[in-house]
Amino acid sequence: MLNAPGKRERTRPRRDNSWSNDTELRRQTVAHFGTACAYYGLDVPQIIEAAHLVADSQGGAASVDSMRPMCPSHHRAYDAGLLVWDAAGGRFEPAPGAAQVAPLRAGSSAVQ
């Protein structure tokens, strides 16, 4: 995450239980995709995280193409299996049979 000048960079556990402090990859992800959450569109640059589409422990690449910007809530929902990545559609969707993650993105297949 980007912090105010003089603030210490924070780290947090990733899905594979390792600790990430790769601020350069986050910066590249935001530069490439923008600062809006890839699921809902919330655009608050100070909280946007870079989410791995495939965890490092599962062979995911540490490259911009394998990352998407997400707000912390939807990033956690994705890591918990409540959201899935639809590669063909290029977007996150609610996982079939999983609890609904609010707010639902307009145009989502779960929105009636």
Automatic annotation (TrEMBL):
Renumbered residue ranges of the record's region Disordered: 1-23
InterPro entries, sorted: HNH_nuc (IPR003615)
Entry protein name: HNH nuclease domain-containing protein
Source species taxonomy: Bacteria, Bacillati, Actinomycetota, Actinomycetes, Mycobacteriales
